[in-house]
Design goal:
The protein is an alpha/beta fold. The protein has 12 helices and 8 strands. The relative contact order is 0.08. It binds zinc ion (ZN).
Length: 348
């Protein structure tokens, strides 16, 4: 039976097209429709994504029919999937590169998702793996898709988005190439080296589609910029704001990561031992329940605090601006304030 998923910890995210002005008349685009309003479970969090579609406001504009989408929203999850594209890629990576069994992948992902109260079934993993292989076949499918080509003719071409995603472990990057205007995946490929030549190779299937490229959106990686400039020298190229921010945020993110790791190393072992000790004392107190009721209560409160500290130590960051070190500091300060309040009350 299909259990309805619960979303207690969720962030809301409103996403708009990266292209802000009509490609035909340069008028500022206006919001016209909500393309999707749905939950997406990624490896890091649950996101409620509101994907807004925009159009040119000019009645007479020949580009009036083009519906502009957000490349970032399309990059989060495949249509019809609750699990994010990052989970799909992770499943594919674990299965094909690390030769993990479905059970091992299930264990790994379950542990990962438990951090924000989500679960995944073995069947869902098989389903995601199918999606992964379909993704790698996207290129051959799109070339035979006449309905899509008709749509592209109406749009007068494609706006190409290139997104390089690195799975959690390993040194490969998976590149996803998508048409921003139709949201269609054009091609996906794995690389272990992101040289200009290699990138031109993986872009070759897009060139082979033989459709006009109206614009390109990519991240700011130098070899990517060079490959695009050589393949489509006259096409406007925009560095995706999200990608640019992710790049800009990298330095501070890394610094924060070091602080977090340092805090974790210093506190984790102690907290763990302290909790073990508490559990032991709790068990002993439980055995002589009657006379030690007061102590049990105290120990339970201490255990709650210790669990919160351990929880805070396990906070993970999310690029570009989710800083784990800062979050950890905030959570620990919160616990400290609460303990101080408790101490004051005790003294009264
Ligand atoms: Zn227009």
């Amino acid at each position: 039976m299909n259990k309805k998923k619960r979303y207690n910890q969720m962030v809301k995210c409103i996403l708009r097209p990266e292209v802000t002005h009509c490609l035909e008349c340069q008028k500022k685009l206006q919001r016209c429709v909500t393309i999707a309003d749905r939950m997406i479970i990624t490896l890091k969090q649950v996101i409620r994504v509101v994907h807004c579609g925009y159009r040119c406001p000019q009645e007479q504009c020949p580009g009036r029919n083009v519906l502009y989408r957000s490349a970032e929203a399309d990059a989060l999850a495949l249509a019809g999937f609750t699990f994010g594209l990052d989970v799909v890629l992770e499943v594919g990576h674990l299965r094909l590169r690390e030769h993990k069994t479905v059970d091992e992948i299930h264990q790994y992902l379950s542990k990962h998702l438990a951090a924000f109260e989500q679960t995944i079934s073995r069947r869902e993993i098989l389903f995601l793996f199918e999606a992964y292989t379909a993704l790698l076949r996207a290129g051959t499918e799109v070339i035979h898709d006449e309905a899509w080509k008709e749509q592209v003719r109406k749009n007068k071409g494609i706006v190409l988005s290139i997104d390089g995603i690195q799975p959690d472990n390993g040194n490969e990057t998976i590149y996803l190439m998508r048409d921003v205007l139709t949201g269609r995946m054009l091609h996906a490929d794995n690389v272990t080296e992101s040289t200009k030549e290699r990138l031109k190779e993986i872009l070759a299937p897009v060139v082979a589609l033989n459709v006009p490229v109206l614009g390109v959106i990519s991240d700011a990686q130098p070899t990517e910029l060079q490959a695009i400039a050589e393949l489509w020298p006259d096409v406007p190229h925009q560095i995706c704001q999200f990608h640019a921010l992710r790049e800009a945020g990298r330095l501070i993110y890394n610094a924060d990561h070091r602080v977090k790791t340092d805090m974790r190393i210093r506190m984790q072992q102690k907290t763990h031992e302290y909790r073990q000790n508490l559990h032991q004392r709790l068990r002993e107190a439980e055995e002589k329940k009657e006379e030690q009721e007061q102590e049990i209560k105290q120990l339970q409160i201490l255990e709650e605090y210790a669990a919160m500290v351990e929880g805070a130590l396990n906070i993970d960051g999310l690029k570009p601006f989710g800083y784990a070190g800062l979050e950890m500091q905030k959570a620990l300060t919160h616990i400290q304030t609460s303990l101080e309040k408790l101490e004051k009350k005790g003294k009264q």
